[in-house]
UniProtKB/TrEMBL annotation, chain A:
Family: Belongs to the binding-protein-dependent transport system permease family. CysTW subfamily.
Protein name stated in the entry: ABC transporter permease
Keyword Transmembrane found: yes
Keyword tags: Cell membrane, Membrane, Transmembrane, Transmembrane helix, Transport
Main location class: membrane
Signal peptide start and end residues: none
Topology versus the membrane: Multi-pass membrane protein
Annotated localization: Cell membrane
SUPFAM superfamilies per UniProt: MetI-like (SSF161098)
GO cellular component: plasma membrane
Organism listed in the record: Cytobacillus dafuensis (Bacillus dafuensis)
UniProtKB/TrEMBL annotation, chain B:
Residue spans crossing the bilayer: 12-31, 57-89, 101-124, 130-150, 179-197, 203-223, 230-253
Its membrane topology: Multi-pass membrane protein
UniProt cross-references to CDD domains, sorted A to Z: TM_PBP2 (cd06261)
UniProt feature coiled coil, ranges: none
Residues spanning the signal sequence: none
GO cellular component: plasma membrane
Residues of the ABC transmembrane type-1 domain: 61-250
GO BP, sorted A to Z: transmembrane transport
Protein name: ABC transporter permease
Alphabetic keyword roster: Cell membrane, Membrane, Transmembrane, Transmembrane helix, Transport
Family: Belongs to the binding-protein-dependent transport system permease family. CysTW subfamily.
Length: 267, 267
């Protein structure tokens, strides 16, 4: 009786998992073996290993890497300085707040800012640099992506820094370590978990961005996400789209394993 | 030392400025009579008037809100059941499996979720539109609710449940009179998260929405692709205000949540 009533909670939840977690992944895998006419084939996989798709995959990873790198470079000092402020929780909330604004609206704002007569170019004019083509460039794509992901990187790093025991830093200082050594040997290694999960939440979505590539990069940047969207909604080649999705899932799993928390004592 | 803290506050101020610049840029030009996002000609409320006269857009807003509320309510119920199921799972392996499956949708890129749900709904024969969007939103909100509720259940001391059982409470009483009141803050936090995820979602909705049905994000995307129109600015200003209200609500809920830690049964 007891165990039976306990299992009741499992019923709706397991149905949800079966229907919306397991089935979709299996379906993607299944569809990746069909060509556009519905014939069973492994051509999609052959096609994926042609230079066109490999180059796209490489580009996608390269952009995701750049985005993650710049986000980290900006986020780490921000998170560090935030932990030093007086009302740190309030400031953190203010940092997180823009991430609650609809992503599309922020992207749309940048169309205005980076446009030919936009704020950025006006600023350049004032500084005497002349106006530049900003929209539809790699620069604008990476800038806007970093902008959008920044709060997601700051949050885990902030939490890791916040949990750091300050006496460790004092100890390091007392033992004569320079601030840089303290950072490199004490602070950074101890906040590595935060950095890892931050990189995780930035890198994976960055691989699959597709609205930004269209709105900000003007279709010049094609990521794995753009390709999937294109195949599913424009060319209706679900098989090829699924094949790319399979590789994206594999990439995702690899990243999770690489950045996952290792148990203490192992490795 | 003083110089250093000055530099660091300048850094923080710059980060804050960049984070908020696009949002205020949008709001500022929503009052521009010039009709562009680069030359402010004069103050006007015309765009707001136009916005409120646009019945189609109002219907889209209404749709978005209905989808968000419905999906948040349903996913909260499913998520609480899921959290309880994980909590009651006796074997460590079952627990870990459920947790990993739960996290699949959280870490999956939106494109994968969207594409795989598109296949799923097409196969089951669900017409793309209101129902498919609602189901998709429920599906990706459930794990978020679980993540928000589970820690709350886990911090609850089991002796409370045993005490209630010893005092003759039925399992239903235990659930409604002991567990649910205790985890109410977690449930509210989960509900708010689900609500904002649903309001914000673009990528998944973009895949599973048919021709006749759109949500705000999808509509903004197609408007933005067509170019700048200050209606969107007016809309975003209103959305920003609305989001602020939601965030403040969420902030107070979580604050109450933190304060009640370890205080035992509330309400």
């Amino acid at each position: 009786m007891k165990s039976k009533s306990r299992n009741l909670y499992l019923i709706p939840y397991v149905i949800w998992i079966a229907l919306f977690v397991v089935t979709p992944i299996l379906l993607v895998l299944y569809y990746s073996f069909f060509d556009i006419e519905g014939h069973f084939t492994i051509d999609n996989y052959k096609k994926f290993f042609t230079p066109v798709y490999l180059k796209m995959t490489f580009n996608s990873f390269w952009y995701a890497f750049l985005i993650t790198f710049f986000t980290l470079i900006i986020a780490y000092p921000t998170a560090y300085l935030l932990t030093k402020t007086k009302h740190k929780q309030l400031w953190l909330l203010l940092i997180i707040l823009p991430s609650w604004i609809n992503l599309l609206l922020k992207a749309y704002a940048f169309i205005g800012i980076f446009g030919t007569y936009g704020a950025a170019n006006s600023l350049f004019e004032v500084m005497g640099m002349g106006s530049k083509q900003l929209l539809f460039t790699d620069f604008s794509f990476i800038f806007v992506s970093v902008y959008i992901f920044l709060p997601f990187m700051i949050l885990p790093i902030f939490n890791a820094l916040d949990e750091l025991n300050p006496s460790l830093i004092d100890a390091s200082n007392d033992l004569g370590a320079s601030p840089w050594t303290t950072f490199r040997r004490v602070i950074f290694p101890l906040t590595l978990d935060g950095v890892k999960s931050g990189c995780q939440v930035v890198f994976i979505p960055a691989l699959s961005l597709f609205m930004l590539t269209r709105l900000i990069a003007g279709n010049r940047v094609i990521t794995l996400g753009t390709a999937i969207e294109q195949h599913f909604l424009v060319t209706q080649d679900w098989g090829m789209g699924s094949t790319i999705a399979v590789f994206l899932i594999i990439a995702m799993v690899l990243i999770m394993v690489l950045t996952g928390k290792r148990k203490r004592g192992i490795l | 030392m003083k110089k250093k803290s000055k530099l660091s506050s300048i850094y923080l101020v710059i980060v804050f400025l960049i984070l908020y610049a696009p949002i205020f840029y949008l709001m500022f030009y929503s009052f521009n009579s010039g009709g562009t996002m680069y030359q402010f000609e004069g103050f006007t409320l015309d765009w707001y008037r136009e916005l409120f006269d646009d019945t189609r857009l109002l219907i889209i807003v209404l749709n978005t809100v209905i989808i968000a509320l419905l999906s948040a309510v349903i996913s909260t119920i499913l998520g609480v059941a899921g959290a309880l199921a994980i909590y009651y799972a006796r074997r460590r392996r079952v627990k870990n499996t459920l947790l990993s499956l739960n996290n699949v949708l959280i870490v999956s890129p939106d494109v994968i979720i969207g594409a795989s749900f598109l296949i799923l709904f097409t196969i089951i024969g669900i017409k793309l539109g209101f129902v498919s969007v609602l189901l998709a939103h429920i599906a990706f909100s459930v794990p978020i609710v679980v993540i928000m509720v589970l820690p709350k259940i886990e911090e609850m001391s089991t002796s409370m449940i045993y005490a209630a059982l010893d005092l003759g409470a039925s399992r239903w009483d235990v659930l409604t009179k002991v567990i649910l009141p205790y985890i109410t803050p977690g449930i509210f936090a989960g509900f708010f998260m689900a609500l904002t995820y649903s309001l914000d979602d673009f990528a998944v909705t973009f895949f599973v929405t048919g021709n006749g049905f759109t949500t705000l994000s999808v509509e903004i995307y197609s408007l933005a692709r067509r170019g700048v129109s200050l209606n969107i600015n007016a809309l975003s200003t209103l959305l920003f205000v609305f989001t602020m209200i939601l965030v403040v609500g969420y902030y107070f809920v979580t604050k109450r949540n933190n304060r009640s830690n370890g205080l035992g049964v509330k309400l």
